[in-house]
Specification:
With 694 residues, this protein is α+β, with helices and mostly antiparallel strands. The chain has 5 domains: 276 residues, P-loop containing nucleotide triphosphate hydrolases (Rossmann fold, 3-Layer(aba) Sandwich); 101 residues, Beta Barrel (Elongation Factor Tu (Ef-tu), domain 3); 63 residues, 2-Layer Sandwich (Alpha-Beta Plaits), CATH 3.30.70.870; 113 residues, 2-Layer Sandwich (Ribosomal Protein S5, domain 2); 82 residues, Alpha-Beta Plaits (2-Layer Sandwich). Strands 18-17-23-14-15-22-19-20 form an 8-stranded antiparallel beta sheet, with helices on one face. Strands 2-3-1-4-5-11-6 form a 7-stranded mixed beta sheet, with helices on both faces. The N and C termini lie far apart (73 Å).
């Protein structure tokens, strides 16, 4: 590829649900291009894409990986994306850097799952040209026709075979090229030879080619007229029609083979170069200027430089690698650029192209190319880099809400800060991982897409930062409040030979509306308590709130009024009045009908129509209150208020009820009183925990 020749670039996302054979196919493509000298394997941990120890142990992709090679004078970058639900977000964001997609589906009936549907929706949203590859044709009971039918029915794809398999399972040995009507057969030496179509498959091939020609002709009025007049199309016309139809998203050609056995990689590479788009053939990138006005930047090397960061990688040798796609212009190493997302400047060091866990240094990157740079100070995933003289800001990352949270407890005392810092660095690499510290329970909370997602993060925390932690269900941050008004005296009088301690307060407490917090009212008149001691009274009241009264939880929604008291000219002090106020508050709470409050979440659950009844019934069993149901994008969205304690492990339960097709988001709605029979258990458990501490 000539430097700067954007027409000779293909960034190809290898996408599909987990277990479809994506990484094995990517390895076959890499080997066929000559980018590697041996066929990498997921099974024996020699993959050039699954390089993390956690990936090798589980034999599945947990993060997007990239490698590149050359085919027919084109520079082809392969973007191998994860397909399992827990790690889907990284792949969905990485697809944005692709100019086309190979959608991988397993050669089995009913193999399309919810992950494939979500990936397909993202491909549609981005308007990416796509090819389909039916993988694992060498597996037992492989069924090409069933896979094509699933692509059409489950995804609504305009899937049109451009190949037919020759044999299946142990007898799979090649494909029929329907465009040129020839058999491409792989011999024992791995070489592909062109032969005549086998006689027993001739009729099926003729019928399949006729369907292909009809589908292609329907996408172009001129070709359709030509087809109706002549009854067929030439190979050249068919090629041109497919090229235009694929780039317009009107057709998805379907190929087949086996990545593991390297069958079908060569023809697929031919079609990647022929049918998928170059960056210059993609729409102009849309963003906003620094004032927020919408602008576009054409995909041209002569346009001002701009790039979008779609991923960061924590590399043990290079430090943090920032991975980006150049959307316009060109970039050389050791160049100053502007981060328009953070209003800061960065100095680009050596430019790199990713080759699995290795990197290749390059002098320049042009429009469309994917590259990386080490040790940027401020920039992160979702940011825009650009020429400061022509600023533009592109939309940020696709966000995926956390579905489950765990409390993280270091196994060794004193490792709290080390664990927090390590988790924060992991969250920089994986934006779907959320780290927080609950101010009430004092726990480190890690939230993610699913339990496996968090377990992998914990493994990486141990491997990269040497910290071992345990995962526990987070404590529910209950609170306490009162239901009626009460008055009480708080009096401290101590005499021990020298100067004593004296403070005398009269406190009235009353409930505030939910969410009212705490109010302090000073009604002292006539100097009953000197002014210098009033702040100490308020401080004593606020400190008394923190420890609660009935179960040790923070008290809220209370107004406390200081309306009377007395003092001693010698023995009174700020400390004495602080303690007296605390005593008075606790005495008053004893008569104010204290109750326990629990956090209630607003839950939005999107489910298929047929699952709605089961999900609503389950929410009711969790003490939920359904607020309404709204149709949205082919599903039903259920809105409900549910106590937090009932949905700590909601994610796996919802997945089970909906066969993985349900999703949800939740946020804190407020606090409500815990039912008495449950409050008794919570209070008893809290008192028992305190007794154990002592």
């Amino acid at each position: 590829m000539a430097v700067g020749d954007v027409t000779q670039i293909r960034n190809v996302g290898i996408a599909g649900q987990g277990g479809a054979g994506k990484t094995s196919l990517a390895e076959a493509l890499l080997f066929t291009m000559g980018a590697t000298n041996r066929l990498g394997s997921v099974d024996d941990a020699t993959s050039n894409f699954d390089v993390e120890p956690e990936e090798q142990r589980r034999k599945l992709s947990l993060t997007t990986a990239m490698h590149h090679g050359t085919w027919n004078k084109c520079d082809v970058t392969l973007v191998d994306t994860p397909g399992y639900l827990n790690f889907l977000a990284d792949g969905l964001n990485s697809l944005r850097a692709c100019t086309g997609v190979v959608f991988v589906a397993e050669a089995a009936p009913g193999a399309i799952k919810v992950e494939a549907e979500r990936i397909w929706a993202r491909i549609e949203e981005l308007g990416l040209p796509r090819l389909a590859f039916v993988s694992k044709m060498d597996r037992e009971r492989a069924d090409f026709d069933a896979a094509v039918a699933d692509l059409r029915s489950a995804l609504g794809a305009k899937a049109v075979p451009v190949q037919l398999p020759i044999g299946a399972a142990d007898e799979f040995r090649g494909v029929i090229d329907l465009i040129h009507m020839r058999a491409l057969v792989t011999g024992a030496d791995g070489k592909v030879t062109a032969e005549d179509v086998p006689a027993d498959l001739r009729e099926a091939a003729v019928n399949a080619r006729e369907a292909l020609v009809e589908s292609a002709a329907e996408t172009d009025d001129t070709l359709l007229e030509k087809y109706l007049d002549a009854g067929t199309l030439s190979d050249e016309d068919l090629d041109a029609a497919l090229r235009n139809a694929v780039r317009a998203g009107a057709i998805m050609p379907v190929l087949c083979g086996s990545g593991k056995e390297n069958l079908g990689a060569g023809p697929l590479l031919d079609d990647i170069v022929e049918y998928l788009a170059a960056p210059s053939e993609r729409p102009a990138a849309r963003g906003v200027d620094l004032e927020g006005a919408e602008i576009e930047r054409p995909p041209s090397p002569t346009a001002p430089f701009s790039a979008y960061i779609f991923k960061t990688i924590a590399d043990p040798f290079a430090g943090k690698l920032t991975v980006f796609q150049v959307l316009s212009g060109e970039l050389s190493g050791d160049t100053a650029v502007f981060n328009s997302s953070r209003d800061t400047r960065e100095r680009m060091g050596h430019l790199l192209k990713l080759e699995g866990k290795k990197q290749q240094q390059v002098d320049k990157l042009t429009t469309g190319e994917i590259g990386a740079v080490a040790k940027l100070k401020e920039s992160g995933a979702g940011d825009t880099l650009c020429d400061e003289k022509a600023p533009i800001r592109y939309p940020g990352l696709l966000t995926v809400p956390a579905a489950i949270s765990f409390a993280v407890e270091p196994k060794s005392k004193g490792d709290e800060d080390k664990a927090s810092q390590g988790l924060i660095k992991l969250a920089d690499e994986d934006p779907t991982l959320k780290i927080a510290r609950d101010p009430q329970t004092k726990e480190i909370l890690v939230s993610g897409v699913g339990q496996l997602h968090i377990e992998v993060a914990v493994e990486r925390l141990h491997r990269k930062f040497g910290v071992d932690v345990e995962l526990k269900d987070p404590k529910v941050p209950y609170k306490e409040t009162i239901k009626k008004s009460a008055k009480a005296q708080g009096r401290l009088k101590k005499q021990s030979g020298g100067r004593g301690q004296f403070g005398d307060t009269w406190i009235e407490i009353e409930p505030l509306p939910r969410g009212g917090g705490f109010e302090f009212v000073d009604k002292i008149v006539g100097g009953a308590i000197p002014r210098q001691y009033i702040p100490a009274v308020e401080k004593g009241l606020r400190e008394a709130l923190v420890g609660g009264v009935i179960a040790g939880y923070e008290m809220v929604d209370i107004r406390a009024t200081l309306y009377d008291g007395s003092f001693h000219t010698v023995d009174s002090s700020e400390m004495a009045f602080k303690i007296a106020a605390s005593i008075g508050f606790k005495n008053a709470v004893a008569d104010a009908k204290a109750v326990l409050l629990e956090p209630v979440m607003t839950l939005e659950v999107a489910v298929p129509d047929e699952c709605m009844g089961d999900v609503i019934g389950d929410l009711n069993s969790r003490r939920g209150k359904v607020l309404g149901v709204d149709p949205k994008s082919g599903s039903q969205v259920i809105r409900a208020h549910v106590p937090m304690a009932e949905v700590l492990r909601y994610s796996p339960d919802l997945r089970s009820m909906t066969s993985g097709r349900g999703s949800f988001s939740m946020e804190l709605s407020g606090y409500e009183e815990v039912p008495p029979h449950l409050a008794e258990k919570i209070i008893a458990a809290s008192q028992a925990a305190k007794a154990d501490e002592h």
